[in-house]
Amino acid sequence: xxxxxxxxxxxxxxxxxxxxxxxxxxxxxxxxxxxxxxxxxxxxxxxxxxxxxxxxxxxxxxxxxxxxxxxxxxxxxxxxxxxxxxxxxxxxxxxxxxxxxxxxxxxxxxxxxxxxxxxxxxxxxxxxxxxxxxxxxxxxxxxxxxx
Length: 147
Known about the structure:
- It is a single chain.
- The chain is mainly α and 147 residues long.
- Helix content is 50%, strand content 7%.
- It is built from seven helices and two strands, in the order H-H-E-E-H-H-H-H-H.
- The chain starts with 20 loop residues before the first helix and ends with a helix.
- The model has no long low-confidence stretch (mean pLDDT 83).
């Protein structure tokens, strides 16, 4: 699951992308939870923020409104209010072979019927034509919807 971390263990750290004692501890905890649930290999690291720096840069550090999903004692999970943001992120990441199943679920939930609809979502959240071209959005849309 791709996430964006706002704070880790009360520290100023906000990412698992780099190695640090706190980030390594969090990674170890995530792997242990994955093992307990029978996940193997890379799937044990089921919770990561590998894409967060990319998405934050593209959105100029402006995230859409979010809603609280679940509050635990030391962990609060939020999701965007608009699921279209999730689809726009997946489309900009340009990994239809990896994210295809997620994109299919989001397309169904959002009643996406044609290529113009996801383009409108991406334009709302990541409007730069340069970014869209650089990250091959037209190719991703073509692979999903055809020409």
